[in-house]
Design brief:
Elements: H1 3-26, H2 30-51, H3 63-72, H4 79-100, H5 108-133
């Protein structure tokens, strides 16, 4: 399997996590929305890194690596967007365990933000993957 194929599989998994996130949202399970949003972001960014032939770190926060690689490769991605993805990745990676183990109480507002952030990253990843394909 090529790096690109693995990256596509990771993006597919990000879509599965997204579907799980939507189901959690419909159940009003705000902590699970945050957890699944983190998985969407992590898997989306790792998928893109793999498509670019980059071995991603075995950690939950890959936004910093994604940002650095995009800059090093001279990819035409707005620096504010890269900063935003790094911030989203960092925040959700920190919330990953507390959200899953119910160590914190999350509100609908927390879930809405996590859901929107995950959607933005996933939509970007889907679109950007098509440019990497060519």
């Amino acid at each position: 399997m090529s790096n690109f194929d693995i990256g596509e599989t990771l993006l597919s998994r990000a879509c599965e996590c997204y579907d799980d996130m939507i189901r959690a949202y419909e159940r009003r399970s705000w902590g699970m929305v945050v957890r699944r949003a983190q998985e969407v972001v992590e898997t989306s960014l790792k998928g893109l890194l793999k498509m670019m032939g980059v071995e991603y770190p075995k950690s939950h926060h890959v936004g910093e690596v994604f940002r650095r690689v995009c800059i090093e490769k001279g990819l035409k991605i707005d620096s504010d967007q890269l900063d935003e993805f790094e911030d989203i990745s960092s925040y959700l990676a920190e919330e990953r365990a507390p959200a899953f183990y119910m160590e914190k109480i999350y509100s609908k507002q927390n879930a809405d933000k996590a859901k929107t952030d995950a959607e933005n990253v996933l939509n970007f990843a889907r679109s950007f993957a098509t440019t990497l394909e060519n």
